[in-house]
Amino acid sequence: MPQQKTMVSVPELMLEIAPDAAEALRASDLLPGEPAVLPVRATYFDTPDRDLATAGFTLSLTEGESEGETARVQTVRATGSTADLFVLPEWRQPVAADRPVLDERTPLCTLPPAKIAEIGPLFGLCLRRQLWTLSWQGADIELALDRGEVTAADRRSARCELRLALRDGAPAALYALARRLDEIAPLRLGVLTEADHGFRLLGPVLHMHKAAPVALHRDMVAAEGFRAIGAACLRQFRLNEPLVDPANPEAVHQARVALRRLRSAFAIFRPMLQDETGPRLNRETRWLAGVLGEARDLDVLRMRCRPEALRARLEPARMAAYDQARGMLESRRARLLMLDLAEYLAIGPWTMQPSGAEIRGLPLREYASAALDRLRRKVKKDGIGLADVDDETRHELRKDAKKLRYAAEFFAPLYAEKRRRRRAARFLAALEALQDRMGALNDLAAAPALVERLGLAGDPAAAAILGTDRDKRNLIEAAAEAHEAFVDAKRFWR
């Protein structure tokens, strides 16, 4: 008879911490007594084609000392649609050898034998783990402070992280403890697992992170879809946040995209989020996007400036905007916003409100189709008579088109049939063209106020930035044509 799978779902919270902040935390009175110290040595396995990672799993062997002898534990961890920022399903079992055992106790036993034969070590982890058990707000929480490095081939990456694991009690205590820890030492929401660190070493160095497809599947309900989409947006933002720099303008752009996508998710799922916390977090997310907005606006203006002298005149304001943005990103307000958002996605009031129970339980594909229909009707209606409306109305159309595009990108994985995939590609292409034309119109409309604020209104070289009436007419005509093409594009969800 097959042995039962040793699967556990542990509520966890990963937090990034700087080495000096870790020392301050270690010296505080919050951590009681001397910690248990555990050397951790782990090896991660996959095929050369990363088949396990593609399937949404990681596979590792961890070595430790037990009663004077070396013991190995094999861990299979879900990283795809079966995992989120809060609960991480795992399958653990002891093994005797230094090779994985993929039997019926793991979800990987269904892999083709040829793929199992290709599995080999990819990267290693070596760190010193200090462990405390804390009682916080009636909950028992294990706090692990990890310091060490990940190695892959000839590349290394230092690690200093906290992990809070709930052993008993209410999940809200995890976030309450994280906020208290942040009062002592600055912490940031962690989105990179041990495996993520290793895979990043194996790949090229990235200077920005675009939105990845969200791991949605047809068996999900609406509540699960919102959680998965929100977690993907938080992950994209946190990956780009440390890369924000004047020499790397795409990072600030992608960080803003992540926040806009998150706000769009709040709007798309608004019927399900009938609580007071959601609107507050949406406002705070809008504030954070605005913090990055000035730097992004000046990056765009700089790209449109042809004379080098004019670009040089923009640099002081651009540097100041980046300094302000980075200062705000390092603020406690921004750090706690990420924790608040993660908590809201996992256990927010919306998850327990009786009034939203029916919507939360709707099949995600059913909810997605209705939401896409609603957003499409609005963009179709608002684009009528594009040449005869004012700049503000066109700006609203641009925002609605962007929201529809994000929704279509979020939900596209739910419609994986070949015919629907082709339709989705054509629909998104038409929507992207409309959004680009509307964005160019918006840049033209916003240019005079921006040029005035920067003190460039009297500079002849700035005239090209402001454009002409003919430029505006041409852009409106192009936008109207793009809107017609969008209306003609077939819906992939019907």
TrEMBL record:
<dbReference type="InterPro" id="IPR033469">
    <property type="entry name" value="CYTH-like_dom_sf"/>
</dbReference>
<feature type="domain" description="CHAD">
    <location>
        <begin position="219"/>
        <end position="491"/>
    </location>
</feature>
<protein>
    <submittedName>
        <fullName>CHAD domain-containing protein</fullName>
    </submittedName>
</protein>
<dbReference type="InterPro" id="IPR038186">
    <property type="entry name" value="CHAD_dom_sf"/>
</dbReference>
<dbReference type="Pfam" id="PF05235">
    <property type="entry name" value="CHAD"/>
</dbReference>
<dbReference type="InterPro" id="IPR007899">
    <property type="entry name" value="CHAD_dom"/>
</dbReference>
<dbReference type="InterPro" id="IPR023577">
    <property type="entry name" value="CYTH_domain"/>
</dbReference>
